[in-house]
């Protein structure tokens, strides 16, 4: 094992590499070069890129757990889930392609998974089933991941081509026969306002499901 190379140092360097060059440039070989070691030195800690992504996602979720502990509990399940969704988005946005590294990963720290226990305790005490609590967490997680992936991809694409999402060009491309689609396009917003509105719709759906 190469002296001074730890899993924590690897993850820190991987997140820095992600911020500098993005998800597509993130490889074990590139990371080893950044750390000035041979790739084989990293395989003591992460066997492949998927394990590297697992560790990166776990570190991000540790930060989510810490941030969430500072704002919970709320007044009920809706406040709790809203806070969880906001913290997820905030942490993902700290890193380029931050939501992409989370997709399909496996959390490697049981303490991170245990962060759900206080939430489940509160919700089941008010009548939820554990399966409903788990579904609610999964749904808000999926929404936040998908929203931020789209948010970050659009931001990067617009940076490379400012005209890519031009509403006027879209109107001309659509032509006649789609006045409502055009109107909706002009009202389309991004960022915090859109996230909060769509998160509210997700929570409304969870609430409606619970009522049945």
Helix percent band: 55-70%
Report mean pLDDT, rounded to a whole number. Answer: 90
Silhouette: flat
| Succession of helices and strands | HHHHHHHHHHH
Amino-to-carboxy terminus distance:
57 Å
Helix and strand content put the structural class at: mainly alpha
User: Roughly how many Å is the radius of gyration?
Assistant: 20 Å
Compose a concise summary of this entry.
The protein is mainly alpha-helical and 212 residues long. Helix content is 70%, strand content 0%.
Structural write-up:
The protein is 70% helix and 0% strand. The protein is mainly α and 212 residues long. Helix 4 (49-71) crosses helix 5, helix 5 packs parallel to helix 8 (130-160) and helix 5 packs antiparallel against helix 11 (192-211). It is flat, with a radius of gyration of 20 Å.
Architecture blueprint of SSEs:
Layout: H1 7-21, H2 28-34, H3 39-42, H4 49-71, H5 77-93, H6 110-113, H7 116-125, H8 130-160, H9 167-174, H10 179-187, H11 192-211
Helix pairs in contact: 1-4, 4-5, 5-8, 5-11, 8-11
DNA-binding region: 27-46
InterPro entries: Homeodomain-like_sf (IPR009057), HTH-type_TetR-like_transc_reg (IPR050109), HTH_TetR (IPR001647), Repressor_TetR_C (IPR004111), Tet_transcr_reg_TetR (IPR003012), Tet_transcr_reg_TetR-rel_C_sf (IPR036271)
Domain HTH tetR-type: 4-64
């Amino acid at each position: 094992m190469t002296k001074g190379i730890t899993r924590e140092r690897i993850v820190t360097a991987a997140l820095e590499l992600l911020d500098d060059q993005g998800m597509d440039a993130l490889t074990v070989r590139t990371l080893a070069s950044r750390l000035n070691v041979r790739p084989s030195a990293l395989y003591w800690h992460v066997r492949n890129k998927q394990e590297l992504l697992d560790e990166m996602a776990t570190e991000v979720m540790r930060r989510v757990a810490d941030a969430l502990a500072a704002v919970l509990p709320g007044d009920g399940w809706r406040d709790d889930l809203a806070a969880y969704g906001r913290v997820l988005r905030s942490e993902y946005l700290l890193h380029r392609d931050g939501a992409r590294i989370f997709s399909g990963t496996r959390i490697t720290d049981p303490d991170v998974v245990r962060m759900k226990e206080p939430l489940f305790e509160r919700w089941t005490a008010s009548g939820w089933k554990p399966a409903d609590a788990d579904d609610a967490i999964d749904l808000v997680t999926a929404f936040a991941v998908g929203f931020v992936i789209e948010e970050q991809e659009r931001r990067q694409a617009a940076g490379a081509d400012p005209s890519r999402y031009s509403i006027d060009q879209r109107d001309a491309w659509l032509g006649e026969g789609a006045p409502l689609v055009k109107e909706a396009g002009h009202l389309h917003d991004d960022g915090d306002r859109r996230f909060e509105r769509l998160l509210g719709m997700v929570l409304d759906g969870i609430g409606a499901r619970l009522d049945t």
